[in-house]
Amino acid sequence: MQREEHVFGAFEIAHYRPKERSNSVRIVHPKNNEEAWWPLFDDKGGPLFPELVAELDAIKGSVVSGLVFRRDHAHRKSSALIPWMTERKDLRYLRHVVKKIVIAAGLRHELSFTSFRHGGFTEGADSDLTDAELRAAGRHRSRQQLPTYAKRTRKQLIAAAKKRREERTRTALSSDSALASHDALVSGN
């Protein structure tokens, strides 16, 4: 649920499992100066992001400092792996690479890195995250911004209909039970 410029321009190796918080990752949102320490494990020690932790552990083993995500190929000007974001804060090359991946994967041509951010919010809404949980994850201060990201889906409509039916059934059963109790009292049983 992060912006591409935050993932590729602000996520430093020091943010990932530092000694003082070895089971967390610091997520920085420079746009609104928000940050969050995300737990990597639940209260029982179960991994929340097992594939990501494995990949980031491997990166941390080879990168001493600086940005986490770097190009995985040498640059014409340097044999060292350089960041995706240029010194001018440009991500055009990354966007070009993402577009190639989208096409190679057979995904819709109009998708971009930003699409995946929006998809994360929509997936969260489909998973019944509350507005407060979505705001916490995306570091939004206002719920007015959420509809821009968390799209309305068929799954949400189905879930809403099922919840309403469950509530009606629960209410009807309560009413039937109360009516039966009332009838029993009136009849003396």
In short:
The protein is mainly alpha-helical.
Identify the overall geometry.
elongated
Order of helices and strands: HEEHHHHHH
Question: Radius of gyration from the CA trace?
Answer: 24 Å
E-strand count = 2
Low-confidence stretches: none
**Secondary-structure content class:** mainly alpha
What is the element layout, followed by pairings?
Elements: H1 4-9, E1 24-29, E2 34-39, H2 50-62, H3 92-104, H4 113-126, H5 131-138, H6 146-149, H7 154-187
Antiparallel strand pairs: 1-2
Task: Characterize the structure shown.
With 189 residues, the chain is mainly alpha-helical. It is built from seven helices and two strands, in the order H-E-E-H-H-H-H-H-H. It has a two-stranded antiparallel ribbon with strand order 1-2. Strand 1 and strand 2 form a beta hairpin. The model has no long low-confidence stretch (mean pLDDT 82).
Write out key terms for the chains shown.
7 helices, elongated, 189 residues, mainly alpha, 49% helix, two-stranded antiparallel sheet, 2 strands, 6% strand
